[in-house]
Amino acid sequence: MRYVDADGHVEESLTTFDDKYLDPNFRAQRPRVVAVDGLVYWDIDEQLFPRRVGRGCNNLGTPTSYDGKPAIHSAGKPESIGCMELTDLGARLKIMDEEEIAVQVLYPTLFLAYPLRPGITFTYLGLKVNQRVVPTGPWFEGMRSGNFDVVLEASCQSVVNPLLDVQKALPASVFTENYGNYDDPKEIDLYQKMLHEPDPAKQRALMREFEKHVVDSEAHEFPMLWWYRIIPYRSYVKGWKISPSHYLNQDLPTVWLDK
Q1: Distance of CA 226 to the CA centre of its chain
Q2: Residue 225: left (phi > 0), alpha (psi -120 to 50), or beta?
Q3: Ordered DSSP codes for 163-177
Q4: Is 68 domain-assigned?
Q5: What is the pLDDT along the chain (259 residues), one digit of tens a residue?
Q6: CB 80: neighbour CB atoms within 10 A?
Q7: Which of 16, 38, 92, 132 has a CA that sits 20 to 30 A from residue 183's CA?
Q8: How far is it, in rounded angstroms, from Cα 151 to Cα 111?
Q9: How crowded is residue 13: how many other Cβ atoms within 10 Å of its Cβ?
Q10: Nearest C-alpha neighbor of 173 from the set 160, 161, 157, 184
Q11: Which residues pair with 49 in a beta bridge?
């Protein structure tokens, strides 16, 4: 059985911030790797990261190397520098195969761990953005009216069924709760073939083709897998174990009320 790693990471390197990826106008503000007392850090706006002392201290985001040599923090890991930084895709795929991982959802490391710049804005990154967080009513009103450039939306079904789960990505002419305002006859055709294919192996292959078309070739939408489930319930509710997903633990014969 192969698995989906929903919390994979890529370690930032100096290449992450070179002219190929970051506007040269911000060159003076780029992170640098420095060594202090045998440990390596990112120097960002004259602050050192990671923060190894004080509240919230940890090693997350430590540079993988300094002056061409692996950092102490990296030397003890089984992965190579190229694997961690994704400069050697073969090495990363080898580790994934060894751990029976079919798909990895990748997140940054340094920028996920720390608020690197107080009051940082999209303007600092060279973008002019008006980001709005609104209640449910205005959220849906804005999506239905198309009053956005990019929107974060939720897709949640009652049971796990891949054919139902991907309907959200279909154009609004087919699935009315899609707010992307695009049309895509090829996508619809792929879905119909997948929907009516009786052979599970062929249906799976069509699903992979459908995913690549939606997420990669056309880039209509991009799935973000994240879950932090908080369930408040009365103290007299007994025998129920909170699961990490509402798809699990639907059978509730052990639940009783101490009342």
Answers
A1: 7
A2: beta
A3: HHHGGGGS-TTT-TT
A4: yes
A5: 688 888 888 999 998 888 888 778 878 888 899 999 889 999 987 888 888 887 767 788 889 999 888 998 888 888 999 999 999 999 999 999 998 898 888 888 887 766 555 555 555 556 667 778 888 899 999 999 999 988 888 877 767 788 988 998 999 999 988 999 899 999 999 999 999 999 999 999 999 999 999 999 999 988 877 666 777 888 898 988 777 677 676 678 888 999 8
A6: 18
A7: 132
A8: 21
A9: 19
A10: 184
A11: 42
- Adjacent-strand bridge partners of 4: 103
Cα(170)–Cα(12) distance, rounded to whole angstroms? 35
Q: Which domain holds residue 86?
A: 3-125
Query: What is the distance, to the nearest Å, from the Cα of residue 220 to the centroid of all Cα atoms in its chain?
Result: 16
Per DSSP, the chain holds a count of helices (H) and strands (E) of: 8, 9
What ranges in 16-131 are assigned the alpha helix state H?
A: 72-75, 81-85, 89-98, 110-113
3-class secondary-structure state, position 159: coil
Token output for 194: 């997948």
In a domain, 11, yes or no: yes
Residues in CB range of 94: below 8 A, 6 or more apart: 83
Name the helix (H) or strand (E) containing 108. Answer: strand 101-108
Residue 171 has which token pair? 């154009």
Contacts of 223 (CB under 8 A, 6+ apart): 155, 215
Question: Would you call the peptide bond into 50 cis, given omega within 30 degrees of 0 as the criterion?
Answer: yes
The total of structural domains in the chain comes to: 1
Token representation of residue 101: 């991982």
Residue 142 lies in a domain: no
